[in-house]
Design goal:
Strand content: under 5%
Largest sheet: none
Number of helices: 7
Structural class: mainly alpha
Shape: globular
Radius of gyration: 18 Å
Order of helices and strands: HHHHHHH
Length: about 200
C-alpha cells in the first residue's frame, strides 16, 4: 500500500498550497478491495517459468523481505503514488481552475480524485504483471499463461466502473464517471508508471 501512502503524503504537501487531498479514505479501501484482491489472489495460480529450476535458491539466512526488496516495494509505491497524484494535478491544471479555489464538494474535485484512484489501480495492475517475471519484460510468451489473472482483471474492471459511474454508488464512493480527457490522463499515468 505504498502507492496510496505516497499519494496521501503528496496530497498533504499539496494541502499546504490550498489543494484538497487527492485520495480519500474510501478510495484507499476501494483500491484494496476492488483493484488489488482478485489479481493478487489470481497470482497463486501462476505457472512456474521454464527456468525456475536453474535459479539458485534463496539463502536461508536472508529474510524474504530483505532491505533490497523493501526498497524496491517502496520505490514502486512512490512512483504509483506519484502517477496518481500527477494525474490529479494535471487534470486540475487543464480545468483552468486556480488550485487554491477548488471546492472539495464540486464535480471537478470528484473527477480529479477519480483520476487519482484509477491511475493507482491501473499502475498496480501493471506492477502485478511486471513482478511476475522479475527483471524480464512483461511482454513475452509468459504474459497470457495465467488465465485466472486475466479473468480477475475482467471481473474487477466492471466493478471499478460501477463505483465510478453508478449514480447510486457515487455519493458513497465520492467518485464520478470520467470523460475521454480523464481516461487519457489515467492511461498516460499508469503507462508512465509501467515504463519506469
Amino acid at each position: 500500500n505504498f502507492g496510496e501512502l505516497f499519494a496521501i503524503t503528496l496530497g498533504l504537501i499539496g494541502s499546504y498550497y490550498g489543494l484538497p487531498i487527492g485520495l480519500l479514505a474510501i478510495h484507499i479501501l476501494l483500491i484494496d478491495l476492488l483493484g488489488e484482491i482478485m489479481p493478487l489472489m489470481a497470482l497463486t495460480w501462476d505457472s512456474p517459468t521454464s527456468d525456475v529450476m536453474t535459479e539458485r535458491p534463496r539463502d536461508l539466512s536472508q529474510h524474504v523481505l530483505n532491505t533490497r526488496v523493501i526498497a524496491d516495494i517502496a520505490i514502486s509505491g512512490f512512483f504509483m503514488g506519484l502517477a496518481g497524484y500527477a494525474g490529479y494535478l494535471i487534470f486540475l491544471k487543464l480545468s483552468g481552475q486556480p488550485f487554491g479555489s477548488i471546492d472539495d464538494k464540486s464535480l471537478l474535485y470528484q473527477e480529479a480524485t477519480t483520476i487519482t484512484y484509477a491511475s493507482i489501480v491501473f499502475s498496480q495492475w501493471w506492477n502485478v504483471l511486471g513482478r511476475r517475471l522479475g527483471t524480464q519484460s512483461i511482454f513475452n510468451k509468459y504474459f497470457f499463461t495465467n488465465s485466472k489473472l486475466w479473468l480477475s482483471y475482467a471481473v474487477t474492471l466492471p466493478l471499478i466502473a460501477a463505483v465510478m459511474y453508478l449514480p447510486l454508488l457515487q455519493p458513497y464512493t465520492k467518485m464520478t464517471g470520467l470523460g475521454l480527457q480523464g481516461w487519457l490522463i489515467v492511461l498516460a499515468m499508469s503507462i508512465g508508471f509501467m515504463l519506469i
